[in-house]
Design brief:
182 residues, alpha+beta, Nuclear Transport Factor 2, Chain: A, four-stranded antiparallel sheet, elongated, DUF5590 domain-containing protein, Cystatin_sf, transmembrane helix, membrane
């Protein structure tokens, strides 16, 4: 009888311990879900302004340039802030649209070099370069491809090379000092 009571007590303790572990697992899962929810809400609140500005640019490009579809929107900041929109016009042609301080400029894609070609030009000019990014933008008043790359060597240095958007002609390169690059 004593043995039976002792066995029963051990069984209850084991069940209670097992129940306690599951409570902790469930509580940890709930806390994790709450943390993820808060992070998601924070991210959305931070990005809300950017998304609203991008939506505004899309609408302006569609109205002013007669686009039927917007494929890509890029914000380029250099001498001035420019929004570059790639889309399709009412004739079904690929078009690039620059929006700078309310002014709209368009260029058909067939009248320009591609991002891949701008990358090739930079890699040909700088054989040791590793291209990190190619963006459409403006350099002064000229439409250009911005190629951001770093040179492999003893000290890694970063550079911005600009190529004319219409024909790929080299414009200039800006070198970042290595103390800022590390």
């Amino acid at each position: 009888m004593l043995r039976q009571a002792e066995s029963l007590t051990r069984g209850k303790r084991y069940a209670a311990r097992r129940m306690n572990i599951w409570r902790w697992v469930i509580a940890a899962g709930i806390v994790l879900l709450l943390v993820l929810l808060v992070l998601n809400l924070y991210y959305r609140s931070v990005q809300a302004g950017v998304w609203a500005e991008e939506r505004e640019v899309r609408e302006l490009a569609m109205e002013s340039a007669g686009l039927t579809q917007v494929n890509d929107v890029t914000k380029h900041v250099w001498d001035q802030t420019a929004w570059v929109v790639r889309g399709i016009d009412t004739d079904g042609r690929d078009v690039w649209v620059w929006l700078v301080e309310g002014e709209v400029q368009t260029l058909r894609a067939e009248e320009s070099v591609t991002a891949a070609r701008a990358r090739e030009l930079a890699e040909a000019q700088y054989p040791d370069a590793r291209v990190l990014r190619v963006l459409p933008g403006l350099l002064g008043e000229e439409k250009a491809w911005e190629v951001y790359f770093h040179m492999n060597g003893e000290s890694r240095t970063y550079h911005y090379a600009f190529y004319r958007f219409s024909d790929g002609a080299y414009l200039t390169t800006y070198n970042l000092p290595s103390r800022f690059a590390d």
